[in-house]
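This is your field. Have a critical look at both lines of this record:
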Amino acid sequence: MNEAKAELRQKMRERVKQCAMTGGDTSRQFLQSIYAIPGIEGTDTVFAFFPYAGEPDITPAISRMIDEGRTVAVPRITGEDLTFHAINSVTGDFLPGAFGIPEPDSSWPTLFPEQSHLIRFPAVILMPGLAFSREGSRLGRGRGYYDRFLSDFLSHFAERRREITLAGVCWEAQIIEDIPVESHDIRVNCLCTEKNCILI
């Protein structure tokens, strides 16, 4: 299975870059797709991300959510894990992380895991990936950051699971028929593309 995943990852990395090169400015379409997530209007806390290597640009959606008074957090790589820090702007004094992705400084408020008591529900977790299936399976970049984060988060808030929406954000071309899955893989509840929001 590892060989199959490695081969698929290489193929999808090229597809993501191609989508970014030919897709034009689709940030408004992704904003509309994210705002079509069921229950998004009543969501108090959003975990988001800054794009990397051709991933969709969702910064307009992040900005709008901040303006609306929601708590928005983005990840920082800390060792082998992701810590999510609350932000109040997409143009803050971010630092380039291990992969060149803008990250909050370690001194910024850590919403998860340190201050998880400040998380308000319902919550939405927007996450990138190299590929998704229409059944909700996700193929990451292979380092397991989101796998570990989701496992910890959903375990910590097991009693609030129905109030947590996992949303994959991807180009339409990243949705494929078959993704090799393992027992620890966690499925998303919906997919947000440049065309629409697909419910799983």
Q: What stands out?
A: The chain is about 25% helix and 25% strand. The longest helix spans residues 2-23. The domain at 2-199 is CATH 3.40.50.10420 (Rossmann fold). The mean pLDDT is 94.
